Amino acid sequence: MTPFKTRMTALRAALAAILLLGVAACATPDAGQSAPGTHAGQSMSLLPQRQEMAISQAAARRAQGQRVWCVPFARDLSGIDLRGNAGTWWNAAQGVYARGKEPQVGAVMVFSAGRNLRVGHLAVVSEVVSPREIRIDHANWERNRVTLRQRVVDVSPRNDWSMVRVESVPGTLGRPYSISGFVYNQRVGRAQGV
């Protein structure tokens, strides 16, 4: 085997190991955290196959020297097929996918574009802990990385998930971010033939 093929084989093995560790880590609640819960009748967790595929795609992009962005990661993980910058997803989903203000496992949380997030941001709800706390999986919150099960708290005055804080540093909630809402993987309108 040539040195190049040997390195590629080793790289593939390393990526597979990282993928398996990542999936195993997100399949089990962290110590001291509640077990995955349900809210408003949604399923208990993301589909493991979809999680594995999204993480694998992100690892492949990094291995090829490409940036890992939030939009393709959210699309791969949620199955919601929208295009454009993160901040455009809320409007792009209108009439195509169901939208709402309540988190559900598998829904894409759309962070509004603004001063701190110029083109917005997308994250997929991986767990609903309580009516005001969720966990999310997303990419590029930390530059070029995938983050799993990150804690998010609703801090909106009306308890409507229009403003959240993200726990980027353990035990510390960051600045408030505006949220447009949640896009659900449920086609509506003409997409369903209505």
Written account of the structure:
The protein has helices at 3-27, 48-63, 70-78, 89-93, and strands spanning 97-100, 108-111, 121-130, 133-139, 146-154, 163-166, 176-187. By secondary structure, the chain is an alpha+beta fold. The chain has one domain: endopeptidase domain like (from Nostoc punctiforme) (endopeptidase fold (from Nostoc punctiforme), Alpha-Beta Complex), CATH 3.90.1720.10. Helix 1 packs antiparallel against helix 2 and helix 2 packs antiparallel against helix 3 (70-78). The chain is globular.
Write the layout of secondary structure elements.
Elements: H1 3-27, H2 48-63, H3 70-78, H4 89-93, E1 97-100, E2 108-111, E3 121-130, E4 133-139, E5 146-154, E6 163-166, E7 176-187
Antiparallel strand pairs: 1-7, 2-3, 2-7, 3-4, 4-5, 5-6, 6-7
- Please provide the count of β strands: 7
Which stretches of 5+ consecutive residues score pLDDT under 50? 6-44
CATH architectural arrangement: Alpha-Beta Complex
Distance between the amino and carboxyl termini: 58 Å
Please give the CATH class: Alpha Beta
CATH topology: endopeptidase fold (from Nostoc punctiforme)
Q: Tally the structural domains.
A: 1
DSSP helix count?
4
Largest β sheet strand count, sense and barrel closure: 6 strands, antiparallel, barrel
Spatial order of the strands forming the largest sheet? 2-3-4-5-6-7
One letter per element, helices H and strands E, the order comes to HHHHEEEEEEE
Give the strand content: 25-35%
Q: What Rg, in angstroms, do the CA atoms define?
A: 17 Å
Indicate the percent of residues in helices: 25-40%
The global form is globular
| Category from helices, strands and their pairing | alpha+beta
- Residue-averaged pLDDT, rounded? 80
CATH superfamily: endopeptidase domain like (from Nostoc punctiforme)
